[in-house]
Amino acid sequence: MKLLIAVFSFFCTTVLFSQENTDSLHFNYLNSSLSLTDKEQSHFWVKYDKMQEEQAQIKTHQRDLKKSLMFAFAKSDEEIKAIIDQIAEQDILKVQLKRDFISDCVDFLDAERAIKFSIYEKKFKKMTQAANSK
């Protein structure tokens, strides 16, 4: 039993450090790719973290809505349509959050770097997925 607990603890620690490493790489990658100054970094990361927190809340709500459809047989067609509409509204909110974040970035970065944020963000996600699939 002690061996099982030790292996489980090691696995959890490895996953935790792996996530921290990814976060650190993400931070450094965007700072470097966008050529952020120290002052720009402070504005950028505060706004970025806020956007991420709000998107996480939206995703959680969306997941709950989708779970409620698992028992759709117990719901009327109107209820199902209302849930589907709510899920779509959550998608729109996510897009609006990202749009607002990029618009805010134009205020303290130049427009070119604000636009490139999405490109660099996608590149980083692809690199992370490629590294995790090995």
Written account of the structure:
- By secondary structure, the protein is mainly α.
- It has a single domain, classed as Four Helix Bundle (Hemerythrin (Met), subunit A).
- α2 packs antiparallel against α3 and α3 packs across α4.
Q: Characteristics of this structure?
A:
134 residues; 4 helices; single chain; Four Helix Bundle (Hemerythrin (Met), subunit A); mainly alpha; 87% helix
Distance between the termini: 31 Å
> Secondary-structure element order, as H and E?
HHHH
Shape: elongated
Tell how many strands the DSSP assignment holds.
0
If classified by CATH, what would the architecture be? Up-down Bundle
Ranges with pLDDT <50 over ≥5 residues?
2-17
Structural class by helix and strand composition: mainly alpha
What's the CATH C level?
Mainly Alpha
How does the major sheet shape up? Answer: none
Query: What is the C-alpha radius of gyration, as a whole number of Å?
Result: 20 Å
Helix content: over 70%
Strand content: under 5%
Mean pLDDT over the residues: 85
Number of helices, where a helix is a run of at least 4 consecutive DSSP H or I residues: 4
CATH fold name: Four Helix Bundle (Hemerythrin (Met), subunit A)
**How many domains comprise the coordinates?**
1
